[in-house]
């Protein structure tokens, strides 16, 4: 039986400690824009942000979180990576992050191309990568 077709990426929801702080960080640092300001449901609130590249995120603040800080060593999400066009674009990101005082790894050479790692206010690990499939070493 053939696998049914997926039509692309939908969205990802992150659990955050403070919705407004997270919204501010994702909009100011990574250029997302707020679509839905604080939609409430029993037990949680969510803020939806969207990036012009087509990435949609929900930033969810739960009434009873299991912990107060992300840890990629727990089962679940390790990190999320965003593609950038090329090394000059990655260099521009490094300057942008420096100007905002956002801690990051600097440009690192990795399998598949150079990248920068950074963390959001909830310690969620993010990557900005100039991915090149010709640089993947198997």
Structure commentary:
By secondary structure, the chain is of the alpha/beta class. It folds into 2 domains: 9-63, 2,3-Dihydroxybiphenyl 1,2-Dioxygenase, domain 1; 78-133, 2,3-Dihydroxybiphenyl 1,2-Dioxygenase, domain 1 (Roll), CATH 3.10.180. 19% of the residues lie in helices and 33% in strands. The chain contains 2 helices and 8 strands, in the order βαββββαβββ. It has helices at residues 19-30, 87-100, and strands at 12-15, 33-41, 44-50, 56-62, 80-83, 108-110, 113-119, 125-129. A 4-stranded mixed sheet has the order 1-4-3-2, with helices on one face. A 4-stranded mixed sheet has the order 5-8-7-6, with helices on one face. A hairpin with a 5-residue loop joins strand 3 and strand 4 (56-62). The longest helix is centred in the last third of the chain and has 14 residues, at 87-100. It is globular, with a radius of gyration of 16 Å. The model has no long low-confidence stretch (mean pLDDT 89).
